[in-house]
Amino acid sequence: MPRAYVFFIHGVGEQAADSWSRGWQDALIAALRQYAPYDRQTPEQIGKDVLRFVPISYDRVFEGYRKRWVDFAGALADSEVLGDGPLQDALTWIAHDQDASVRQAFWTHALDAVLWAGLPQARAAVIASVIDQIVAGVKQMLAENAGADRAHWLAHSLGTSVLHDALICLRFAQDLHGGAFDPANFKWQSVSMVANTSRLLRAWKPLSQGVPLEQFHPYRSLLRPGSAESLTRSYHNIHHRLDPITWPKQFLPAGFTTGYSDDETQHFEDPTRVHDLAHYVENPLVHLRLLRTFLGDDRLGSAAEVDAVAKAFVRRFPLTGSKPFAELRDLFDDSSDKPLTLADLAKFLSRAFKALRGAA
Amino acid sequence: MSRVHGRVSLTAFVVFGSWLAALAARADGGPLCAAVSGETVSVDEADPRLDVYAGSGDQWLTMDLRERYARPSEPPQSAAGLRFQAQRIAHTLEESGVFQSKRGKALRQRLLDELALLDAALAELAADKPVAVGALKNRYPLARLDGSSRFAESCAGTAYTTNSLYFQDAPAGAQVVLGAFGESRAGVPGLSIPVAGPRLHFVSIAEASEFRAALEALRALTSEPHLRAVARTSLRLTQISRSWSNYLEHGFSQYPWEAWLNSAGTLRWDEAPATQWIVLHPELAVVVDARRFKQASVTPALLVHVLGFALYGETRSWFVGLSATGAVTTSSRWGMGGGGTLHFGHTQLYSRLPHLSLSVLLFATEQGKLGPFIGVSADFWRLVSDSSESLFRSSLPP
Question: Which domains does chain A have, with CATH numbers?
């Protein structure tokens, strides 16, 4: 049977080469080994015969900006060269924020999202890099899998928005791929979005010739499953009730039915970990959704196994309250969809990542 | 519910089959539901090797199937070659004695129908030329040959996961080889997780295995033009990604305001910009009085490239630029200066040869006259902001 290829795409912040995807792989394989028949297989066997992982990274693009801009943070904020543009507003605010840890969270984490959202040049470069890696991964899969398409996506945080735009741009790059990535010839088996930011960080400027901006709207784009034109056969949205990154512009598509699922998790032990992908994957609701999808096997996990894993999980993650991050939650209490400027986004993400320090 | 071991009893399947039939009758009558109803075949779950679509590996692929559906060592590229191989698969299927049950025969016929469609599509193409995936797309979409992960939502109101759903987008309906039915819940209060019921084959294991072997042989054949197109795409995309890297990481540096301005125009992800505005771009330089070259007296200066632009070559591997420049030196003998600057650099030689700017400047002397100066500067911001490690390492003796 052809192996499933799971394409990973990470969230914000500098990602140490390979180690970030190793953490994801370990989390998924550890979860899988709780269920028969994989409980009798070694991680190496699973990695070789069952699930192959294709990490896609893009942090190098943002690192280039980060290392140049951070040294000039103060000067940039006081400079009038940028005028009253949204980027200037964001930089001015962050330079004058009194909380050093918020400033640090901006430069280490939030900057990526701010650049992705506010600097089309950075967005285009990220898309080019990501699409290059995606197609190389597909080429590898088709060659190793005798042509069988078993490609799945697992995206996290900023990576969900990056993935959305990259798949749309690739689909419409007919001149480049000659139809190879037309959904008639190639469909992703599934797209799983964890802590989905595709609405929050939606494109405001087209970056693909001949593709209307409307195609980059996450509710109306071809990522919506269920039609012949869909880029994916299924779409899974996963979010933790306490994950502050998912509060603004929540992903709640009314029209997604066929092939769509939405899972909200609530258990935690340490609130600073709720945004962490490994934390998500430890929840059996999440890892069974993912693994059953990747393996094409709804029977993964007998009732007895699921009972045991769920009990152990709840023992380790006993809390379900809603007190943490109340200040951040209050910002969106009236409406998740309230308009956000780039400066608002920078403020919110810096404060959220400060709260989640070490968990992004 | 514990995992079912051993062969599920016939009685249980009669009851379960009735339930499925009732389920199908209740549903909206789509082809998937029609496929679900009726007789089912049990799976010996104690021996996963017998289950064609569960788990991983190719234990289900018997030596006999391997031989009968052996793939050519060199996949054909031409339409004629593909047709020949596809017809060979169809012939093997037709000759097979495995498909005995009513459902099994229908399954084989469905695949033969697909093969006929593919054959007709290939017949429209030039026989002796490599098949282009774009040309095939409108005649026979290759995605039809891939198993789907979604299953029969209209049957039970729930999506089941299986890789055994084929031709999902075909109007004549899909083929379901097996699935898992009878969902229940497990877990703990507050964490309820669905658990699927027994796995059912809708044809015999042997029929399902041969169906799969034939289909995968066919997919391997048709993947050749697909893989060729993907490989070609990959090469081009690597060039595009590299040109973006050249432009942003190794091109003429951009201060944040320049990055913002250079984002204002039309941007395409599939083509790194070939031009770059230079606006209020400060650089440290050394200037030398052009009239006193022999004295080799150099003076540090701050240059500000007020407005200019750079042009990049193909793949953004080099650039040249011009800008109007203002300057001030550290010497009290000279006042403000101004002139023009030529910028040039090679993005791939950058680690050995930093980008340089050559300025021709006029400074006001103490006598009120204008004196010509030559200024030389490296790409100041790129130098100070880049990690100097690579420069440092390149300067080390081997």
Answer: 4-61+119-320 (3.40.50.1820)
